[in-house]
Amino acid sequence: MKSSDALDPERPDEGDGLPVEAGDGHRYRLLVRQPERPVASLLWIPALGVAARHYLPFAEALNRCGVAVFVHEWRGHGSSDRRAGHDSDWGYRELLDHDLPASLAAMHARAPGVPHILGGHSLGGQLAACLLGLVPDASSRLWLVASGAPYWPAFPRPRRWLLPLAYRFLPWLADRRGALPGRAIGFGGKEARSVMRDWSRTALSGRYAGAGMSRDLETALSAVAVDVDAVLFADDWLAPRSSLDFLLGKMHTTGLRCRTLDASTLGTRADHFAWMQRSDAVARALAAGLDQPSA
């Protein structure tokens, strides 16, 4: 399933969630699912262009494991009051300096007294790691699902030789159209031009950076020390183990648990997106690490 198949990231939500306002005035809703006595709370960052509501089955599966879940909303999608276009643009700087800290603060206020976890799917996992670099005391645990750096040499042959072409084409297309027409091409949603330029920079150079940011993300990542629980999927070419290893190599992992789930375990296709509707096995794999020593 492509990210544009049935996910419809641009449709406004109907009002479910906790209202949040970022430092620059961006308004959106944080989707919250919280059990009565949580053992931990998780700030979850979606994949590129996927609205928060599509992680509701995952949030409810984690609730059954005792984890309170706060699903961040991408600027430009779902409940966000912004939409990308020729006259509306943003990049990693707005996401990391304004939006994600606001969601993190909202989670801390709503779920005090329990361990806090940062995590994400695909690009969401990468930005969760970057946020840890910028806010070191945000969490001592990182949860990654189908996530890894998009750096093209970190992908297996022969597909990796085609990736630099895509990494140059997508920002060009976004610049030409005012925003990436993701649903039309089967990659992401209607994405801001600067997001695509920042993403492409990492994909081509292997380095994380946000245009206009005052702090160096590579330096920030190198100071991260965190327990990592990761889930990959057997048939997911978008997030192979080699790309995860490249991302983790930028940090100091104090403990690593990584599982690769297949279709029989998931009860659905073991690809980049299908797990979102059949997420019990993913939730159990992540939550199991709460009771296990680092390895």
The fraction of residues assigned to DSSP E strands is: 15-25%
Rounded to an integer in angstroms, the radius of gyration calculated over CA atoms is: 17 Å
Q: Uncertain runs with pLDDT below 50, 5 residues or more?
A: 1-6
- H/E series, N to C? EEEHEHEHEHEHEHHEHEHH
Domain Serine aminopeptidase S33: 40-175
Region (Disordered): 1-22
Organism: Lysobacter brunescens
Pfam family, one: Hydrolase_4
Task: Summarize the model shown.
With 295 residues, the protein is α/β, with parallel strands linked by helices. 33% of the residues lie in helices and 19% in strands.
Question: Can you describe this structure?
Answer:
With 295 residues, the chain is of the alpha/beta class. It is built from 10 helices and 10 strands. The protein has helices at 56-63, 92-110, 123-134, 163-177, 182-185, 193-205, 217-222, 241-248, 263-266, 280-287, and strands spanning 18-21, 27-33, 40-45, 67-71, 116-121, 141-145, 180-181, 190-191, 225-233, 252-261. The strands form 2 sheets. Strands 1-2-4-3-5-6-9-10 form an 8-stranded mixed sheet, with helices on both faces. Helix 8 links the parallel strand 9 and strand 10. The chain starts with 17 loop residues before the first strand and ends in an 8-residue tail after the last helix. The model is unreliable at 1-6 (pLDDT under 50).
